[in-house]
Amino acid sequence: MTLAPYAVVDAISQGRRFDEPAPSYRSEFQRDRDRIIHAAAFRRLEYKTQVFVNHEGDLFRTRLTHSIEVAQIARSIARALQLNEDLTEAIALAHDLGHTPFGHAGQDALNACMQDFGGFEHNLQSLRVVDELEEKYADFPGLNLCFETREGILKHCSLKNAAGLGDIGTRFIDKQQPNLEAQLTDLADSIAYNSHDVDDGLRSGLISIDQLKDVPLFAEQYDEVRQRYPNLSARGSIHEVVRRLINCQVIDLVRTSTDSLAKHQPTDLGAVRQHSQPLIAFSDIMRERNLELKRFLHTRLYRHYRVHRMSAKAEQIICNLFESFFEDPRLMPEEAQQKVSNLKAEQGEPGQARAVADYIAGMTDRYAIKEYQRVFNPEELT
Ligand code: MG
């Protein structure tokens, strides 16, 4: 398929941190995608919370299924806009690799623990996973991904952090846009979670159809489905509405972005970067509809007392583990201890804290719970 002149292609890539021969039979971005799929951090996503902790039910999204849904949505959009699907897929599959166990509650807790040592941010951690923490290849640390993939993984970044990141941080300082594949994957992420959190929220019983009828984006689709399929079961109606929610957002995004690309006619990737605004965007009305749904999910689902109760436990687990490991790294497995002493030798106390944070961030929900038991429960002997 012919790609648009502003798509990322191998020939214009800014390359990898460590030079490597070009891959055989694959493009550079296929190779990035493949490396991500084979990474340990990718497999761990299966047991990390999106909203619901893994043991709460088998049908809820996990970070892994979320990432796959983002990749599906992002690829459809990339193809419709004649952009690089392989790069898009790589960014989508890697975008959540840096998440701690227990979702946002886990990240907030770890960030609080790391306050005196530069903080903790899951987005930055995703980059750290692919740049430093994965240990797979003999010739280099991390996955040695292409600049454009790494740029897409680092969606946002404070100016302070950007200054320490070298080439990948420059765009935040220069206020430039990332490549279009990165822009669209960011929005595909929000399409995915807004839609599947409605599905999971209803399935869990924490939110109801009645409440959702006040949210225009949902109500419009729901009314249409009820009218067209009056005899459809409650569950069947929800499925039909959720698929329509995804579809209408994708269509809006493709249409609006096609118009905006036609209007501004960026000649190449350089022009995309220089543009004052992202060229991939929802229409104003869809952006508003999205915000309404997001606000609803925040108040009704993410702050529901049952979600909050689990978040409070998560915070306790993360904070207690961090304090204990930081005070006495010998409580950690030997491999993790080694990493703590290496980073401590390089960077002193902040290095020690960072290595403890890396260890905790890498845990799955169930591993963190188990580790908490092993450290704090006297009856847990293993
Ligand atoms: Mg995500």
Topology:
Blueprint: H1 28-37, H2 40-44, H3 63-80, H4 85-94, H5 103-113, H6 122-133, H7 147-153, H8 159-163, H9 170-174, H10 180-204, H11 209-212, H12 216-228, H13 234-264, H14 269-274, H15 284-302, H16 305-327, H17 334-347, H18 349-361, H19 365-376
Outline of the structure:
The chain has one domain (26-306): Hypothetical protein af1432 (Orthogonal Bundle).
Please tell me how large the radius of gyration is.
22 Å
Give the C-level CATH assignment. Mainly Alpha
Strand percentage lies at: under 5%
What oligomeric state do the depicted chains represent?
Answer: single chain
* Share of helical residues: 55-70%
Could you spell the SSE succession in H and E letters?
HHHHHHHHHHHHHHHHHHH
At the fourth level of CATH, the homologous superfamily is Hypothetical protein af1432
CATH topology title = Hypothetical protein af1432
Q: How many H/I helices?
A: 19
CA-to-CA gap between the ends? 56 Å
Beta-strand segment tally: 0
Instruction: Please mark out the parts with pLDDT under 50 across 5 or more consecutive residues, or reply none.
Output: none
- Overall 3D geometry? globular
Q: Judging by the overall fold, what is the CATH architecture?
A: Orthogonal Bundle
**What's the structural domain tally?**
1
User: Helix- and strand-based class?
Assistant: mainly alpha
The biggest beta sheet reads: none
Which ions, cofactors or small ligands are bound in this entry? magnesium ion
Q: Kindly report the average pLDDT value.
A: 95
